Amino acid sequence: MMIRGRSRRIIFGGDYFPEQWPEATWQEDIRLMKQANVNMVSIGIFSWALLQPDEDTFTFDWLDRVMDLLASNDIDVCLGTATAAQPNWLTRKYDDVLFVGENDQRVAYGSRQTYCVNSPSYRKAVRRLAEEMATHYKDHKALALWHINNEYANKNSMCFCKNCEKAFQRWLQNKYGTIDNLNECWGTIFWSENYRSWDEINTPQMSAGGRNGTKLLDYKRFLSESFFTLYLEEYNVIRSITPQVPITTNFEADWSKFDHYLFRDHLDVASLNLYPDPGNPAAYKWSALRHSMMRSLLQKPFILMEQAPSQVDWYPVNVPKPPGLMRLWSYQALAHGSDSVMFFQWRASKKGAEKYHSAMVPHFGEKSRVFQEVSDLGQELTQLAEIAGSNVDAKVALLLDSDSWWSVDSPYGFGSKSLQNEVFWMSNAQPFPSVLVSYFGELEYYYEAFHALNIPVDVISADYDLSKYKVVVAPLMHMVKTGFKETIEGFVRQGGTFIATYFTGVIDENVGVFLGGYLGPLKDVLGVKVEEYCPLPPGGKNRISFPQAVDGFQNVYQGSIWGEVAHTTTAKPLAYFEDDYYAGSPCFTENRYGQGRAYYIATRPNEDFMRDLIHHLATIHHIEVPVLPAEVELVTRSRETKKFYFYLNHADGERKVKLPQGKYRDLLSGAVCQDTLKLERYGVSILTDV
Ligand code: GLA
Q1: 99 Cβ below 6 A of ligand 1
Q2: 273 lines ligand 1 (CB under 6 A)
Q3: How far is residue 290's CA from residue 208's CA, in Å, rounded to a whole number?
Q4: How far apart are the C-alpha atoms of 239 and 254, rounded to whole Å?
Q5: Nearest to residue 42, comparing CAs of 143, 153, 151, 154?
Q6: Percent of residues in the chain assigned helix, strand, coil, to nearest 5
Q7: Which residue's CA is minimally distant from atom 3 of ligand 1?
């Protein structure tokens, strides 16, 4: 990424909290940063109490000294606005600052992210701090990038305080205009829920089981927008004072808590914090999806803002990254479009909340394995400047729709439902046909099927430009909003392939069910309508059979989780359910529409089906499917005609890759290779055409 005043390079560094250490240690830090080739650090992130010890005092001296020291050593600063951890004096002085949980209890102070997103006192203080900081540092040489707040909604995603309630009422009034309209849209006639005035509407805390799904969803939408407007409080101030400095905020890997697409016109660069579990051999697949989401958000390279040098301290058991894994996962981030490798944190804490978390400089010091691996990586990255700014070119897009997500999974963002937490689930959301259905789980399943074949995928919302994609998949698009029908029909008419899955097109944006056949407005493009849904019991299967041969498919597969009774109108059934009372009902259909095709899949098909489906699509659209050993990942970044092929070996042993015809230069070793590439365990090669 091109940062102010810098030539092209890969950013390397991490979160730096010098306030934890005596100033003598700062000198030592600089020496080690130089040794490790660190070129950017994020500072100030949680230091509000130091920057503003009381309401009318600002003390920047210590931060000035840090900024000056970094500037004189040619290390850029990603400057945190410190607002994710408000000082205790603010909390004690204003009683609206702390968020309120499900049981009307305010959270206690003494940690970070305890603020209520809609607290007027907190917002006012945030604006003021942003203004003071931006004014103070606007001309500082080290200031390269602003880092607003930190991981919005991580701990405080749901608040039920009286300020939120009032703001929610205003939000509803703005949206629905009249209380009658709200009652109509929410269907409050059922169960005597009618509201007579705006101030009767309470926040949707835990009630008896079975609550109004539209109200729950509206509350989630309202809070989602609240996080965005909170971001704007700082963004607007900083932008006006330092228009020349790029702005970011770091997002966590879990996108369930607010709609990230709201931010896209107000971010100069997207930033990701990613903590895959080193104890999970499949973790790289989990990471690949999150990298793709972040790259797709702005459709350009992003910043890997945080990852762990070795273990974290918040999984139940925190295994370290064995030698080589941190390097491999850093290159995986670069492969998928990151222009940086950054860590939490620079020096391991001696005290406080995160002292068991790994760091670039561990408690053991510079003679440690981890610092050695960090420094070696920093050195290697200095050779890769030309990669910065290149991007991944995906021909397949997955649509991510927060409203469908929150309608299917818990709007409270508690992650996937499970049979075990049934009671918890029932008391926290609206009743639903099957806890086995997971919106994000379905999206993940489709992503992994493409990823397993090394086909790059973007993850976008439906209002992005679809014309650059050949295949658009909308897993579990449960809610079909106004305009989506036209978008998809236009895309398919022009020659695109659209894929919809089970339990799609069931509700409109007010959570009202489409009558006369599910798929609702998508019935025309898909050429199918659905009469009944038939969730399968845990472990239950239904066979998917192809009566006639279809290119690339076998005769029989299996589906799980879901079955349906569907009727084709213009679509051609390619495969049918074979079991249960709905045997003979179409399960996989194809509709030719304009120049393109639309497929409907009425179940969760097994992995064999997914593999064959993707090969089928690749043949139709001339998408290349590289042949590689299992657990070797290939991602290509490109800029104009230049291509960078990242080969990443996630396997537990050596792997040999057969290269496509041609000669290649390995950017890391400098060697020229052809025919075969040998990758050590956790090995990485970045090749370019010679
Ligand atoms: C998050 C936070 C960091 C740190 C790490 C630890 O990503 O942003 O401040 O707490 O987790 O893994």
Answers
A1: no
A2: yes
A3: 36
A4: 27
A5: 143
A6: 30, 20, 45
A7: 344
Atom 9 of ligand 1 has which residue's CA nearest to it? 344
For residues 558 and 578, the answer to whether their CB atoms sit within 8 Å is no
Record the tokens describing residue 487, joined without a space.
């978008």
Residue 79: in which H helix or E strand, if any?
A: strand 76-80
Which phi and psi angles does 686 have, rounded to 5°? -115, 110
Three-state SS at 357: coil
Which CA distances in Å does 586 have to 157, 178, 256, 480, 564? 41, 43, 33, 22, 8
Give the Cβ contact number of residue 193 at 10 Å: 13
Residue with CA closest to ligand 1 atom 4:
344
Distance 344 CA to ligand 1 centre (A): 6
> What are the two backbone dihedrals, phi and then psi, of residue 369, each rounded to the nearest 5 degrees?
-60, -45
Residue 273 CA, ligand 1 centroid: distance in Å = 8
Query: In which residue are the tokens 């493409």 written?
Result: 450
- The answer to whether residue 102 scores a pLDDT higher than 90 is no
φ, ψ of residue 247 to 5 degrees: the values are -125, 135
Atom number, ligand 1, closest to the C-alpha of residue 314: 12
pLDDT of residue 1: 46
* Residues contacting residue 75 through CB under 8 Å, at least 6 positions apart: 13, 30, 33, 38, 39, 40, 41, 142
Instruction: Tell how far the Cα of 340 is from the centroid of ligand 1, in angstroms.
Output: 17
Is the distance from the beta carbon of residue 275 to the nearest atom of ligand 1 less than 6 Å?
Answer: yes
Please check the confidence at residue 246 and state whether its pLDDT lies above 80: yes
Distance CA 507, CA 403 (A): 10
Distances from the Cα of 673 to the Cα of 454, 663, 689, angstroms: 21, 6, 10
For ligand 1, say whether the CB of 357 is within 6 Å of any of its atoms. yes
Averaged pLDDT for residues 499-523 = 97
Of ligand 1's listed atoms, the one at least distance from the Cα of 252 is 7
User: Would you name the residues annotated as active-site residues?
Assistant: 151, 306
Residue carrying the six token digits 């228009």: 243
- Residue-wise pLDDT for 33-67, tens only, equals 999 999 999 999 999 999 999 999 999 999 999 99
In angstroms, what is the C-alpha Rg of the chain? 26
Q: For residue 173, give Cα distances in angstroms to 168, 181, 262.
A: 9, 10, 21
Instruction: State if residue 151 touches ligand 1 by the CB under 6 angstroms criterion.
Output: yes
Task: Calculate how far, in angstroms, residue 370's C-alpha sits from the geometric centre of ligand 1.
Answer: 18
Using a 6 Å cutoff on CB, does residue 354 contact ligand 1? yes
Q: In terms of DSSP H, where are the helices of 242-323?
A: 283-298
Q: What percentage of the chain has pLDDT greater than the value 90?
A: 92
Give the confidence band of 205 by pLDDT, cuts at 50, 70, 90.
confident
CB contact at 8 A, 77 and 142: yes
Listing DSSP states for 197-208 in one string gives SGGGPPP--S-S
Ligand 1 mean position, distance from CA 276 (Å) = 13
Are 431 and 209 in contact, with CB atoms under 8 Å apart? yes
Residue 666 and residue 656 in contact, taking contact as beta carbons nearer than 8 Å: no
The total number of residues written for the chain in this structure: 690
Element at 219 (helix H, strand E): helix 213-241
631: helix, strand or coil:
coil
pTM comes to 0.97
Amino acid at 566: A
Sign (positive/negative) of CA torsion 423, 427, 428, 432?
Answer: positive
Residue nearest to atom 5 of ligand 1 (CA): 344
Report how far residue 56's alpha carbon sits from residue 52's, in angstroms, rounded to the nearest whole number: 8
Is residue 614 scored above 80 in pLDDT? yes
Tokens read off for 516 = 């006369």
CB of 312 sitting under 6 A from ligand 1: yes
pLDDT band at 320 (very low <50, low <70, confident <90, very high): very high
* DSSP state at residue 568: E
**Which amino acid would we find at residue 312?**
V
Residue 82 CB contacts under 8 Å (≥ 6 apart), including other chains = 44, 45, 46, 47, 48, 51, 129, 133
